Amino acid sequence: MEYNGAMTHRLAPWAVVAALVATLLPVRATAGGFEVSASGAYWTENSSAFTVTLGNSWDLQGFQLGFRAGFVYVSSPDARGIPADAVARVGLGTFYLEAQAGAWLLSGRDPILRFHATGGGGLDLGIVRLGIEAGYLTAGALFGARVSLAL
Question: Is CATH 2.40.160.20 the right assignment for the domain spanning 30-150?
Answer without folding.
Answer: yes
